[in-house]
Amino acid sequence: MPHDGHDHDDDHDHDHHNRPPSDTALRVKAIESLLTEKGLIVPEALDLIVQTYESKVGPRNGAKVVAKAWTDPAYRKRLLENSTAAIAELGYSGVQGEDMVVVENTPKVHNMVVCTLCSCYPWPTLGLPPVWYKSAPYRSRAVIDPRGVLEEFGVEVSASTEVRVWDSNAELRYMVLPMRPAGTEHLNEEQLAELVTRDSMIGVGQPRVPIGSAP
Ligand code: FE
Known about the structure:
Layout: H1 23-37, H2 43-71, H3 73-81, H4 83-89, E1 100-104, E2 109-114, H5 123-126, H6 131-134, H7 136-144, H8 146-152, E3 162-167, E4 173-177, H9 189-195, H10 198-202
Parallel strand pairs: 1-4, 2-3
Helix pairs in contact: 2-3, 2-9, 3-4, 7-8
The structure holds fe (iii) ion (FE).
């Protein structure tokens, strides 16, 4: 990632989460230290698990939502009108996904999501937020210079396309419905889901182009 992805360790829960600040985080760290000290775990193994949830397990749920919206116009409509309920139809609901808003990319509008205050993120559909999402540079620059950030992520957005930045918070979690790639008419829902990347649902990436189709 061309991002200044230092984890500044500042993604503390703050007041808008209505929870005692970072009590859980402290406990987790304490347990991790203790288990490492006793030789019961290696921190690298934990990192690997976290990474798996960040980039594999979690975002596959969101990808299924996107693929369904691409293939089922009635579902797409429900998804945009009442995102939480439409996502729950597929069985994805719960903590950090209670109030979802799905925003749709079109040739005229490109959406991207940030949490400027910390790391609010839709867990049921995307899993755990990646480190760069929680980083201070992303959180501030996504708002100040969204086009610059998109460029660093390798996303080309034409000058005539409006870039909208959505600030997730404790009340609302945003997810992007990316545009279905051209040349995918022959693909079924499952194959389409394979094309949906985590970053495309945050708005800092595009879906993959299917193998064998022209770039
Ligand atoms: Fe937050």
